[in-house]
UniProtKB/TrEMBL annotation:
Organism ancestry: Bacteria, Pseudomonadati, Thermodesulfobacteriota, Desulfarculia, Desulfarculales
GO function term, MF aspect, one: DNA-binding transcription factor activity
Name of the protein described by the UniProt record: IclR family transcriptional regulator
GO biological process: negative regulation of DNA-templated transcription
Domain HTH iclR-type span(s) in chain numbering: 18-81
Domain of life according to the entry: Bacteria
Species for this entry: Dethiosulfatarculus sandiegensis
One Pfam family this sequence matches: HTH_IclR
Keywords, alphabetical: DNA-binding, Transcription, Transcription regulation
Amino acid sequence: MKTTSKPAAANSTPVKGAQSVHRTIALLRALAKRNQTGARLTALAEDVGLHITTAHRILLSLVEEGIVTLDPVTKLYNLGFEVYLLGKNAQQFTLRYKLSPLLEEIAKVSEDTVTLMIRSGYDVQCIDMVQGSFPIRTTLTDVGSVMPLGIGAGSQVLIASIDQDDIDKILAYNVVRYPEYMNSTAEDIRQTLIDTRKRGYGVCDGMIHPGAVSVSVPLSDAKGELLAAVTVAAIRSRLGQKRQKEIVDLINSQWKAMAKKLGF
């Protein structure tokens, strides 16, 4: 039941240098997947659909900046130390660390898959996941994977309360990506946001996978600032309307009990 999506880009207005940026990021993502063993130039170029000369030029620039390393003997590329230094300053990973006990407790009680979702530009990104003990695991995304904003229960609650102008921009930006998810349209997403506001929590039934349902609740700090969304996913037979509300109550009660202790 895994699904991933490319970050938003294809339908945006091209700007000077944007193509190089997208290619560079694509290469870094491909390299990250092969980082444990290292990757050869030909494999990386094939992974992202680039000519080997173009991939080589980009990788050389990344090596010069310390973002990527190249073993002169094996000719294998790996992520460089600069990536670690950049990552240290990414606040979402602090958020992931702080909220890990919350996800673990919810997974323990619900026995289902729990994910932590944040907004990343025009995408929603999974930054943590804890699997429950139920034997049929429902994994709708991977840690680090992105989907267009509007897709998925967590995505819904992250943008349901923002200004309408911002929602219109998001829908327009992602309109060509929505059909990848059960032929959804921008109007379908707009309606799900209306439903989410009425309920007070997000529900995704079959949009990512026809046999799976997910429920999501937004997390806000003591100042009322939106931090992230916690989502619980399960097979449809386990997550009917009655249990959806029970899961929402579980997330809310656990957050209320743990927020201050976790530093929020």
